[in-house]
Amino acid sequence: MTDQPMSEQERLAAASWSLLVEHPDPVAGALVAQLGPAEALDWVQHVLDGRIDAGHPRWRQAVDRWAPRLETLEIRRQLEVLQRLGGELVVPGDTQWPTALDDLGFEAPHALWVRGRLSRAPGLAVVGARSATSYGQRQAADLAAGAAERGLAVVSGGAYGIDAAAHRGALAVDGDTVAVLAGGPDRLYPAGNTRLLEQIIDTGAVISEYPPGAAPTKHRFLARNRLIAALGLATVVVEAAWRSGALSTAAHAAGLSRPVGAVPGPVTSAASAGCHRLMREQHAVCVTDAAEAVELCGPISASAPREPDSPPSLLDGLAPLESRVLDAMPARGAADTANLARVAGVAPAEVRSALGRLELAERVERHGSQWRRAR
Question: Do 31 and 158 share a structural domain?
Answer without folding.
Answer: no
